[in-house]
From TrEMBL:
Keyword ATP-binding applies: no
Keywords: Signal
Protein name as catalogued: Tripartite tricarboxylate transporter substrate binding protein
Family: Belongs to the UPF0065 (bug) family.
Residues in coiled coil: none
Database matches in InterPro entries: BUG, Bug_dom1
Cleavable signal peptide: 1-23
Length: 330
């Protein structure tokens, strides 16, 4: 046998021997990287770091955070889609993942989102585990003479008060979608006032420059306690423990809509299922730790979920958000 043939046979034999144990040996090198398509210091970044810290202890591997914000989360998410499918690069996505997928069908999508969507939300990713649920509450400035959803809707329809200002994070954002979901459900006359982030919108709401908006419960709670904002209704299926006296939309007379924001972990498509499963188990175990709720703080509530549940949720949201987008963005 020639040296060349002997070397080739050796390489092939080693390849076959290594293949079955590859996933079992993972993780065998450092570090595991989580790409967060949002700036450092925000809710997504803080939550990812809390979960990564807990999961790294069980995996006995360093997990680092790589922030790549921009273009409605498209920049960072594309980096995940193009990464090697070996379990050493995963990413964080939010409900914007489904929104961007639905938006991509519009002729002006790139103008609205700041970039083309160069990946498929369903085909190019493997959901790994949940991360956080962000419960939402509809709030008003105390000067607004409405204390129930029906009051607010009627106020928006009154001629002298038509055009009730509603703060959002810009066209195509989850907040924009939620405003139009509320408008469709209640038939209210809301006027969209876009902002570049939650903080500037909240500042104007507190100052009375805008009338109402949807806020994360954990974020709004401090202002509600201080009497600087008035909660009208929570948007989930049940009342939230942090605001037990605040009714849901359904309890307020508007059933049929339950809204929350969420973030979860994904891997590039093609990542071995055994690795996806192991990552999912470890991340979900970290989310179920008793101390995790405190570690997450105002970011949101722990959201342990498996791959199948997350895939189904993305498909459902693409359809739901797509209907809103088609009706509101021309």
């Amino acid at each position: 046998m020639s040296i060349t043939r002997r070397a080739l046979c050796t390489i092939v034999a080693l390849g076959f021997a290594a293949s079955p144990s590859w996933a079992q040996e993972w993780p065998a090198k450092q570090p595991i990287k989580i790409i967060v398509p949002y700036p450092a210091g925000g809710n997504a970044d803080s939550a990812a770091r809390a979960v990564a810290e807990a999961a790294s202890a069980n995996l006995k591997q360093t997990i680092i955070i790589d922030n790549r914000p921009g273009a409605s989360s498209i920049i960072g998410t594309e980096a995940v889609a193009r990464a090697p499918a070996d379990g050493y690069t995963i990413g964080v996505v939010s409900d914007s993942h489904a929104i961007n997928h639905a938006m991509a069908k519009l002729p002006k999508a790139a103008d609205v989102l700041g970039a083309k969507v160069p990946y498929d939300a369903l085909k190019d990713f493997a959901p790994v585990s949940g991360m956080i649920i962000v419960p939402l509450v509809l709030v008003v400035n105390p000067k607004v003479p409405a204390r129930t959803v029906k009051d607010l809707v009627q106020l928006s329809k009154d001629n002298k008060n038509s055009g009730l200002n509603f703060g959002t994070m810009g066209t195509g954002s989850p907040w924009f979608i939620h405003m139009h979901q509320l408008r469709g459900l209640t038939k209210a006359d809301f006027v969209d006032v876009p902002y570049k982030g939650l903080a500037p919108a909240a500042t104007d709401l507190l100052a009375g420059q805008i009338d109402t908006m949807v806020m994360p419960v954990h974020y709004a709670q401090q202002y509600i306690k201080a009497g600087k904002l008035v909660p009208i209704a929570t948007l989930g299926a049940q009342r939230h423990p942090l605001l037990p006296e605040v009714p849901t939309l359904a309890e307020s007379g508007y059933p049929g809509l339950a809204i929350s924001n969420y973030l979860f972990f994904v891997a590039p498509a093609g990542t071995p299922p055994a690795i996806v499963d192991k990552l999912g188990r470890e991340f979900n175990a970290a989310l179920k730790q008793p101390a995790m709720k405190d570690k997450l703080g105002i970011s949101g509530d722990p959201y342990p979920a498996d791959s199948a549940e997350l895939a189904a949720r993305v498909r459902r949201d693409i359809e739901t958000y797509g209907s809103v987008i088609q009706a509101t963005i021309k």
